[in-house]
Amino acid sequence: MEQGALAVRELGLVDYQTAWRAMQRFTNERGPESADELWLLQHPPVFTQGQAGKAEHLLFPGEIPVVQVDRGGQVTYHGPGQLVCYLLLDVRRLGIGVRQLVSLIEQSIVEVLADYGVAAAAKPDAPGVYVDGAKIASLGLRIRNGRSFHGLALNVDMDLEPFRRINPCGYAGLPMTQLRDLAGRPVVLGEVAHRLRERLASHLGYTQQKTLAGGIESL
Fold first, then answer.
1. ∠ CA 194-143-36, rounded to 5°
2. Taking the model in full, what pTM does it have?
3. Residue 169 catalytic?
4. Which of 34, 64, 125, 182 has CA 20 to 30 A from 167's CA?
5. Looking at 87, 158, 169, 200, which residue is catalytic?
6. Nearby residues of 110 by Cβ (< 8 Å), 6 or more positions away
7. pLDDT of 7 above 80
8. CB atoms near residue 116 (< 10 Å)
């Protein structure tokens, strides 16, 4: 089904809790005619623990803060060099279910990675995207009144060490990887973000995109 324009915000490096509160406000205040939005950003180092999160999966967080959040899933890490994309969508208006939305996100990531010569795949029993058993992208969504928020995190060019301080997504010993180490050539996060927004817009049925000005403080 073809949709109208998808609004995209490129927000840069944003404190996690600031972005989270802005997502909640946007979702609570949007109306039936509000345009859907993608937010592309990075976060300073932070561990986030989903609603089903168990304390034993936080092994030794050290100086990195831990935030309890209202998305699905277990614990993950965000840090500079990781591309985060929040999907603020009226899922009911799009006419898709949550499982289909997750599949569309995963397929978009797989296609972006293929652009860099990286063969990746999703797993039916463990949301996210994987390369030879190592996880390169995590997913965690929340649906409220038919609208989604939170989204995905794709490891592009970052310090992976903090993942060793947790059981990523609740899986002990799950190896993590990133595009920089797999592509065999330099990768630019902004270019990856552009490719991702194009794939997501296409799979979600949007005929056009519009980039919105203003930082997180305007939300």
1. 40
2. 0.95
3. yes
4. 182
5. 169
6. 120, 121, 122, 129
7. yes
8. 17
